[in-house]
Design brief:
Length: about 250
């Protein structure tokens, strides 16, 4: 039996992944702070989804959530650490509180989630954990210093853990979505190239979770272009991004 624990499941990508996993017959344990969103998800989940409210920035609280998840639904076999947030930043009006918050949620939340599940996975010598990062982890982007820094750290963390945990039978993956239409991106006022619907993102994520590759990245063409940008020397990269974004 596949038992998925997913954070950030009350809306957006997490909700779509939870529903797609339930449709595949997986047992799904869903965590987020918003109980209303979780209740709606459970109702849509045809009896396969249960809600375990929690805040990923609360390490002790999250450990108790994972205790409750396994007591109710058995050992977690797949964990998707999806909860995260974004807020634009402007280096010319530097506000450290935004950086603190995004690091606490995006990186700290991943660390707290790992602290809750990894001892169980390593003791069982099995389990799969996927950390949701972003294509924004590939290089620093304008007006996104806090987000890029937090997601680049998540990607580096996933790479290190992949190396550390392979020998003990725990598989680590990273998820690099491009733009996905969710309540998070609905706030964006700029054009979002290659925007995909959350259901399409969920399908890509589930296929990736069933495979053995490290990186689950989509949509392909956008990822290809951004990986080309990553190869450029700084001088060219900065000039190109400045021209494209008008910064
Ligand atoms: N949408 C995109 O284009 C895109 C692209 C690349 C990467 N991503 C990443 O994909 C993930 C999901 O993004 P999304 O677009 O689906 O965002 P979203 O619509 O804002 O959903 C975020 C989810 O995270 C939960 N969450 C936020 N803070 C939390 C906390 N402290 N504790 C527990 N849950 C928390 C939210 O639930 P509550 O508020 O109810 O707690 C919600 O369920 C994020 O990590 C994001 O960075 C998104």
């Amino acid at each position: 039996m596949t038992h998925l624990w997913i954070t950030g499941a009350s809306q957006g990508i997490g909700r779509a992944v939870a529903l797609a996993a339930a449709q595949r017959g997986w047992t799904v344990s869903a965590t987020a702070r918003g109980e209303e969103g979780l209740t709606a998800l459970v109702l849509a989940g045809a009896g396969r989804i249960s809600a375990f409210p929690g805040d990923i920035t609360d390490r002790a609280g999250l450990a108790a959530v994972v205790d409750a998840v396994e007591a109710a639904n058995g050992p977690i076999t797949v964990a998707v650490l999806n909860a995260g947030t974004h807020q634009p930043t402007d280096g010319a009006a530097f506000d450290p509180s935004v950086y603190d918050r995004l690091i606490a949620v995006n990186l700290g939340g991943a660390i707290n989630s790992l602290a809750a599940i990894l001892p169980r996975f390593t003791a069982r010598k099995s389990g799969r954990v996927a950390l949701v990062s972003s294509v924004a982890a590939y290089r620093g982007l304008p007006k996104a210093g806090a987000y890029c820094a937090s997601k680049a750290a998540v990607t580096a963390l996933a790479e290190s853990l992949r190396l550390d945990l392979a020998a003990v039978g725990v598989r680590v993956q990273v998820i690099h979505p491009g733009f996905v239409r969710t309540p998070l991106t609905d706030k964006n006022t700029f054009p979002m190239p290659f925007l995909v619907e959350p259901e399409a993102a969920a399908a890509r994520i589930l296929t990736g979770l069933e495979g053995n590759g490290f990186e689950i990245a989509f949509p392909r063409r956008f990822v290809f272009l951004l990986k080309l940008l990553r190869l450029l020397p700084y001088r060219l990269y900065f000039a190109l991004v400045a021209r494209q974004t008008g910064v």
